[in-house]
Amino acid sequence: MDLDDLHLNFDSSAAIKLIRSQNAPLLLSFFHHQFKRLHRVTMPHSDLTEKLGDYLEALAESHPGYYPGDAQYYLRTWCDESHRFLRKYYDADREDPVYELTPDTERALRWVEELQKGEFIGTESRFLRI
User: Fold this and answer.
1) What CATH number does domain 9-129 carry, 3.30.70, 1.20.1070, 1.10.10, 1.10.1740?
2) Percent helix, percent strand, percent coil in the chain, to nearest 5
3) 32-53 pLDDT, tens per residue?
4) What is the rounded distance in angstroms from the CA atom of residue 34 to the CA atom of residue 25?
5) Is 90 helix (H, G, I), strand (E, B) or coil?
6) pTM of this structure
7) Which of 90, 113, 111, 109 is CA-nearest to residue 30?
8) What is the chain's alpha carbon radius of gyration, rounded to the nearest angstrom?
9) Distance from C-alpha of 119 to C-alpha of 130, rounded to nearest angstrom
């Protein structure tokens, strides 16, 4: 790891951008629930928009003002060239576009899952010493 390579990675990696984004908790929790926990590879636009809208409404009660955009705004942003957290495309047999997680988003989710596992294991091993 040298400094120039790290600068390049921090500037260009969508996984690092996701982790460093102000909305990382929203992104990671929503993506994990809608794609990973429910074992989905793709999700239709109408379904994802509805689920994200519901999620944002629920969050507005507990975190007022944290996430001011609507579902359409966030989905557009997460798919744009400067973010690349989701891939939106048209499937041959559907009129509604579908979304899937990008490899960088998958990487960010794995990284956070590994961090959480490591914290749990570390705590458990300390209890065994007592």
Assistant:
1) 1.10.10
2) 65, 10, 25
3) 999 999 999 999 999 999 999 9
4) 14
5) coil
6) 0.83
7) 109
8) 17
9) 18
